[in-house]
Amino acid sequence: MEEITYLVDRYNIRQFSVEDDNFSFDRERACTILEGVAALDKGISICYSNGLSLRTLDRELVGLMKKAGAREIHVSIESGNEYIRNKVYGKAISTEKIYEVYDACKYHDISISVNYMIGAPNESDETIGDTINMMKRIHAPVYVNFTTPFKGTKLYDYFMQRGLIDEKVYQEGVAIDLRTPVEGLHDSKKMFAWRRKIGLYNLLYSWKEILVSSGLVNINSFVRFLQVILRKRINVRTFYAEISNKYMPL
After folding, report:
1. Partners of 61 in beta bridges
2. Which CATH class is domain 2-147+186-215?
3. Do strands 111-118 and 70-78 pair parallel, antiparallel, or not at all (unpaired)?
4. CA 245, CA 250: separation in Å to the nearest integer?
5. Which of 32, 98, 127, 184 falls between 20 and 30 A from 67, CA-CA?
6. Contact at 8 Å (CB) between 135 and 202?
7. Tens of pLDDT, residue by residue, the chain (250 residues)
8. How many CA atoms lie within 13 A of 183 on its CB side?
9. Which residues of 170-192 are buried (b: 16+ CB within 10 A; e: fewer)?
10. What is the rounded CA–CA span in Å between residue 29 and residue 234?
11. Helix 95-107 / helix 125-137 crossing angle, nearest 10 deg
12. Burial category of 113 from C-beta neighbours within 10 Å (exposed 0-12, middle 13-18, buried 19 and up)
């Protein structure tokens, strides 16, 4: 509380971002912090931008977050298909719980953004269709990444046991980019087609929410827009490097 007070009083900072995606796991701690921020009455706004767990949220906690200045919440649904979401990714989140939290955010007038992943084992046109059907109910900007088996996870073991990934990729320190299909693991053509399809339906169902989203006007959104409209893959690393070298040279 002292740090927030100092930043507001000294530098007139009014917008804060919570990067801790485990912020709401300890409910008592979260409530104590939120009540303290609300009591400051500094007129600040807060964005929870790193994907809070839906299991930990309900109307009461979302209401307290609003009282403390919440403007936007990011959540990670990952898939509209129950099997992939809960059996493959182990999210343990029912569709009903997802809708409950979404409705709570709408009730308290808090913007919500959603993270999805595509490319899980047994992913298909049908499971992608389940994600799109969920988007009909949840009107929100979406961020789509490719399923990436990080070492130490059950998903990594699953792919290793089936010889689908090569451990030397990790040993050699090759960076893993969630925005790029994993070589040898994904059918890149199909992955990009699915992502374009989700992007188009997101524009169709949620264009109003996208327009008012605080994350709309930034370089990531511009890249995603080009990927959808041009129907082609953009090498994100190269694109960023070109922009940085041109406008922000060292």
Report:
1. none
2. alpha beta
3. parallel
4. 8
5. 98
6. yes
7. 888 999 899 888 889 999 998 999 999 999 999 999 999 999 999 999 888 999 999 999 999 999 999 999 999 999 999 999 999 999 999 999 999 999 999 999 999 999 999 999 889 999 999 999 999 999 999 999 998 888 788 888 888 888 877 776 555 544 455 667 766 677 888 999 999 999 999 999 998 888 877 654 455 555 555 555 555 554 555 555 565 566 555 5
8. 8
9. eeeeeeeeebbbbeebbeeebbb
10. 42
11. 30
12. buried
- Each domain of the chain, given as residue ranges in start order, spans 2-147+186-215, 151-177, 217-250
pLDDT of residue 45: 93
DSSP string, the chain: -HHHHHHHHHH---EEEE--TTTTTSHHHHHHHHHHHHHH----EEEEEEEE-GGG--HHHHHHHHHTTEEEEEEEEE-SSHIIIIIIS-----HHHHHHHHHHHHHTT-EEEEEEEE--TT--HHHHHHHHHHHHHS-S-EEEEE----TTSHHHHHHHHTT-S-THHHHTTPPP-TTSPPTTTS-HHHHHHHHHHHHHHHHHHHHHHHHH-TTSSSHHHHHHHHHHHHTS---HHHHHHHHHHHHS--
Tokens 């990952």, residue?
Answer: 78
